[in-house]
Amino acid sequence: MKTKQFGKEGWTPERIGNLKGKTYLITGTTSGTGFEAAKILLTKGAKVVMLNRNSQKSDKTILVLKQELGNHIDVSNIVMDLAEMASVKKAVEEVLKKVPVIDALICNAAIAQVPKQTLTVDGFESQLGVNHYGNFLLQALLYPRIEASKGRIVTVGSMGYNLGIKTIQFDDMNWDKNYSPNGVYSQSKLAQIMCVYELQDKLKKAGKTDVKVYACHPGASSTSLIKTSGSLLTRFVWQLMKLSPLVQSAKKGSYPELMCATELNLDESGFYGPTGRNYWTGPVGECNLEPHAKNKSVMEKLWTVSEKAIGLKWNF
Ligand SMILES: NC(=O)c1ccc[n+]([C@@H]2O[C@H](COP(=O)([O-])OP(=O)(O)OC[C@H]3O[C@@H](n4cnc5c(N)ncnc54)[C@H](OP(=O)(O)O)[C@@H]3O)[C@@H](O)[C@H]2O)c1
Which residue's CA is minimally distant from atom 8 of ligand 1? Predict the structure, then answer.
């Protein structure tokens, strides 16, 4: 751990005070870390607006949360599929109508290890399309409301940023020539993380100090991630790993995003997650981030390429 600011146990949700009056938008709450994060925010009295692609699963999630926490909780869903720009735009319209204040947008949803190259309806390779472009568009469209709310943007990355080619494959963004399930997942997570630090730079340059932007990762957590999109073999290996102490609970995996959404005076330049072996499990705090994730020329180029891809310029 680089800093021991939260003591031996690391950051835990016990540090969160009463969140009554606060509103959190969170993507991907039908399972895994997103579900656990939503649940903890609700137990602290927050209003939670979930952004999920599947309304049936969302209804079930709301039912489960109400059964566990009581009918008084303030939770709702707006349908949004990160794989479709039109769906993201439609969801944002609804958010802007229904959610006057956004204390934090937590970009948690993702897919991983998609076995064969698949394109989204907008023509993006699916992992990059969902994990990076989908979230990038969502953030760009909600930025004015987040700024007016003096809120935060939290991106859930992955230690996968440090695997694969460790840069962005600008000459073949869809990986037509060398598709690999893990290589592209790693690329998508690196892209997400890079855009956090590039956004911080851009906000600083524009003299905007009201919005805070954070990058974190959940370590290795027992969730549905591989089950949802991975191949049979990856699913089998991951199922075995989940039984070992190398993998922690989804609840613990939600702590880094909760910390980034709620902790006061958290240094934006950090990368937060479990700080134990390989950063897979352990007390939550600041993790070392390898220099390629903050390569300025790649970050700038990625920003330009991403704005072009979503057909929109961020309006600071
Ligand atoms: N678990 C780990 O060990 C691990 C490690 C590193 C990083 N992460 C990161 O942690 C975050 C949470 O993942 P998780 O592990 O909790 O996985 P998970 O249990 O599979 O949850 C992913 C959530 O994202 C949603 N989602 C997927 N595609 C979507 C789309 N196109 N539009 C909207 N929502 C979509 C899923 O909804 P559906 O129910 O509709 O599929 C689900 O609610 C991800 O960013 C992931 O990359 C996880």
Answer: 158
Phi and psi torsions of 264, nearest 5°: -80, 150
Strand partners, 221: 248
Binding site membership of 106 for ligand 1 (Cβ less than 6 Å)? no
Contact in structure between 215 and 227 (CB atoms under 8 Å): no
Residue 273 near ligand 1, beta carbon < 6 Å:
no
Instruction: Output Rg (C-alpha) for the chain, integer angstroms.
Output: 18
Give 202 Cα–ligand 1 centroid separation in angstroms.
Answer: 28
The tokens for 235 are: 């699913």
pLDDT category, 241, cuts 50, 70, 90? low
124 Cβ contact list (under 8 Å, min separation 6): 133, 173, 174, 309
Residues 256, 196: Cα–Cα separation, whole Å: 15
pLDDT digits (tens, 9 = 90+) for 178-226: 999 999 999 999 999 999 999 999 999 999 999 999 999 999 988 887 6
> How confident is residue 1, by pLDDT bands cut at 50, 70 and 90?
very low
| pLDDT value of residue 235 | 63
**Atom 36, ligand 1: residue with shortest CA distance:** 28
Domains, the chain, in order of start with CATH, read: 19-308 (3.40.50.720)
Orientation of helix 85-98 relative to helix 135-148, angle to 10°: 20
Model's pTM, two decimal places? 0.96
